[in-house]
Amino acid sequence: xxxxxxxxxxxxxxxxxxxxxxxxxxxxxxxxxxxxxxxxxxxxxxxxxxxxxxxxxxxxxxxxxxxxxxxxxxxxxxxxxxxxxxxxxxxxxxxxxxxxxxxxxxxxxxxxxxxxxxxxxxxxxxxxxxxxxxxxxxxxxxxxxxxxxxxxxxxxxxxxxxxxxxxxxxxxxxxxxxxxxxxxxxxxxxxxxxxxxxxxxxxxxxxxxxxxxxxxxxxxxxxxxxxxxxxxxxxxxxxxxxxxxxxxxxxxxxxxxxxxxxxxxxxxxxxxxxxxxxxxxxxxxxxxxxxxxxxxxxxxxxxxxxxxxxxxxxxxxxxxxxxxxxxxxxxxxxxxxxxxxxxxxxxxxxxxxxxxxxxxxxxxxxxxxxxxxxxxxxxxxxxxxxxxxxxxxxxxxxxxxxxxxxxxxxxxxxxxxxxxxxxxxxxxxxxxxxxxxxxxxxxxxxxxxxxxxxxxxxxxxxxxxxxxxxxxxxxxxxxxxxxxxxxxxxxxxxxxxxxxxxxxxxxxxxxxxxxxxxxxxxxxxxxxxxxxxxxxxxxxxxxxxxxxxxxxxxxxxxxxxxxxxxxxxxxxxxxxxxxxxxxxxxxxxxxxxxxxxxxxxxxxxxxxxxxxxxxxxxxxxxxxxxxxxxxxxxxxxxxxxxxxxxxxxxxxxxxxxxxxxxxxxxxxxxxx
Length: 672
Description:
The longest helix has 30 residues, at 535-564. This protein folds into 5 domains: 20-81, CATH 2.40.50.140; 86-161, CATH 2.40.50.640; 196-424 and 487-553, no CATH class; 429-482, no CATH class; 565-671, CATH 2.40.50.140. The chain is an alpha+beta fold. It has 16 helices and 31 strands.
């Protein structure tokens, strides 16, 4: 036959070999077309008829052709990898012609496809309704199989469930909805071990009012030479959890407690985290305790720190804001500490001030950003947001925990050369030339390429940035730093100005702290070293930390969208700070409530040629001159909220650099 003609086959192979082929990622637009972004940083148009078989984020092979105008475009040929595998979506039911057809729309700001689906759940007690949330897997892809098809394998929650933001966000990331199940009875496995009796010492806990899992208690004395002896007592869950138990294995997989706005999911059963291990006032608890000498100048003397197994009895469940009111104002509503507790608090304040001064001159200072506490209604909706600044009580706990973790890090490094360490490499040294140029432009000439690679040089730069009135340099420096990491071997933590830093102060919230507890106990008791952490442990912890943060961010975005929606009509004016400059606009956070919003350039000025958003320098240039920079404050109001994509758009209240402000309503209409 003609189709079997060898000459024709050879001609076809030659033709195919001469085609220009590219592999790249698909980027979908709101208007039906898309683009193929390739590794060589080129972008090729994808026509709407091809986009029907693609999903945003797919990796595909495509043939590059030219249309009749000479413009290059991509024609996808084969699927390399889909962007969608397991996903959470919303049910859409079509009942045309008496047939009940199911579709699912992925919960994604960029994938808008309505995908046909089948219900393969083993438990179908809940009948699916329009808008219900379900967990699915994509089993057919249109580019590979000729059509899209998904299978529903889990019911997540109802469309009108007020807890949907939490439930959906957790299931999207395959995170648990509840804490682990508790065994029938908890047995304290270390009852036979001798523990130092410290129950007579006036230890106190300082936490938020709603905290139940209190894992640290403090006590302090002051010596004649002006130095301090800080006692840090930490809850001891490893006394209840054997290293080879099922509960330990589950904790190792969870790695952390999950803290979401208004809700938490403990790493351990609540019977442990909120009861047996919680350092409740007036109840004797087994602890791991450290006595940490602090010099009169504020230096942590790790080599003289003593760790021991002990028993304590907290003499006060203190609340952050009440303690701060008492210490800062001299009195607090519904809080009058005993004379003994008042003396402990006074010494803790002295210690905190000394440590803060030491760190401000020897390491990198902290920028005091507030925490935003989401207060929920009884049915689970967001009622309001409370702004909590880092006051004296917060600083007491912060400095105490840092001191304790310094002592632990140095000890584990010296004794085992292993453990769970928090590390930070400082600057991204591939950007060292850019960093030096930036510093010189901002008036700092002390840095060299060599000094940037040292803890001392890094901290000196950070201290200089903190000394400036404008937060611009500090904001830019943060974007040129490496990310903090978890390591199973000792390594420096540049951001804290430390050679070693290993946390052990939250073992009922962090599995890594449980590991460090077991290492400290082996050292105290002189027993066989427990199982050392390996690369697999590290991988699980890093993944858990990342996904937990994603869940927290997802819930916040969902709650902010509903919370701020009424402010469009109210035309509420918010103070906002610029935290990122991206192509086409500015990213801001609202100081009143912490929400992240986007200010597009079209709402600053309709003349695109007048604006340049410089991501490398963190500046908005107007006609070539800097108009706004990272860290600058700007007054904005909310003008658009998309509840599907959970995005919030803001517009400036006042003209920027004398430019005429467009009408947000007209701009929004054109964008739609």
